[in-house]
Write a structure and sequence with these properties.
There is one protein chain. The protein has 80 residues and is an alpha+beta fold. The protein is built from 1 helix and 3 strands, in the order E-H-E-E. It has a 3-stranded antiparallel sheet, with no helix packed on it.
Length: 80
């Protein structure tokens, strides 16, 4: 999903990956955890520069698993 918070000062793309179920990280099912790992390590790395995961204490929504997916602005203006 598109991240509604305006991070456009630093990123050209700022999306979020959220689970369908409203659960914290430590309550994901084995299937959900496996899908998340697959997405993080095989799918998203080709579309984004970084995946930002906050530790539980720093999450804006601690009771809901989510990742920030970003593409950094390039100082030279060139595409990645």
């Amino acid at each position: 999903m598109k991240n509604k918070f305006p991070y456009d000062r630093y990123f050209t793309k700022s999306d979020m990956l959220v689970t369908k179920r409203h659960v914290p990280d430590d309550n994901l099912s084995e299937a959900e955890e496996a899908e998340l790992m697959h997405l993080k390590h095989q799918v998203l790395c080709s579309d984004y520069d970084s995946i930002i995961e906050h530790m539980s204490l720093n999450k804006s929504i601690p009771e809901h698993t989510h990742l920030h997916l970003v593409e950094y602005k390039r100082p030279d203006g060139l595409p990645r």
